[in-house]
Design a protein that fits this description.
Order of helices and strands: EHHHEHEHEHEHEEHHE
Number of strands: 8
Strand content: 15-25%
Helix content: 25-40%
Strand order of the largest sheet: 1-3-2-4-5-6-7-8
Structural class: alpha/beta
Length: 207
């Protein structure tokens, strides 16, 4: 595959405890700095990483699929600046996280540069990716991504709400001036996830 993969290894020393849905809401407000977010603002990368760790802990099939570690692949296109910048911000935020594990598993973040769907399938297999973060894409059908992730049984997540309705399993969006977790149950099931009802109740279910 063309391009280079940046790999961020996170030090893991003790398990992270899962937050309740109510605690998730408080985390959102706390990490947002107590300020209302603008309607068109993206969630900060650090907030997304923290929320993702908690959301993944509600996947009852996570341990069986991930094995001894959880590999998170950030899918991006180098020639599309918004995707490139977000990929860098996410890996930097993940490296700064004090959390040591997700549902008792260590996790490792890798950057996955992609231009086509067939390249993606090969990259996910080679890197042993368990979860794919989908940055904004240009001129690449989302179905090319979800076809590859479903074959790999890798959970998808994004901060582009429209992608959740189109087949990504989990998303982070805004409801008014507050962050919101979005879930596409059909997509999550197709990728091998089993998200608990404690997560689904406060989330917006879109499929």
């Amino acid at each position: 595959m063309a391009g280079r993969n940046r790999v961020a290894l996170l030090s893991r020393r003790r398990p992270r405890r899962r937050r309740s849905p109510a605690a998730l809401a408080l985390l959102v407000l706390g990490l947002a700095g107590g300020r209302a977010l603008a309607q068109d603002a993206a969630l900060p990368a650090g907030l997304q990483v923290s929320l993702l760790a908690d959301v993944l802990s509600y996947d009852r099939n996570l341990r069986g699929r991930a094995g001894t570690e959880l590999v998170v692949g950030v899918l991006y296109q180098r020639r599309f600046r918004p995707a490139l910048d977000l990929q860098l911000e996410l890996l930097e935020a993940a490296a700064r996280q004090p959390a040591t594990a997700v549902a008792g598993l260590p996790w490792r973040w890798v950057a996955v540069e992609i231009e086509g769907g067939e390249e993606l399938a090969a990259a996910l297999e080679r890197l042993q990716v368990d979860m794919v973060y989908v940055t904004p894409l240009r001129a690449l059908p989302l179905a090319a991504v979800t076809d590859a992730t479903r074959r790999r049984q890798a959970t998808t997540v994004t901060a582009v709400p429209e992608y959740v309705a189109a087949g990504v399993a989990v998303g982070f969006g805004l409801r008014g001036d507050r962050p919101q977790i979005l879930v596409n149950r059909a997509a999550a099931a197709a990728e091998g996830s089993d998200l608990g009802s404690q997560l689904l109740r406060p989330a917006k279910v879109v499929g």
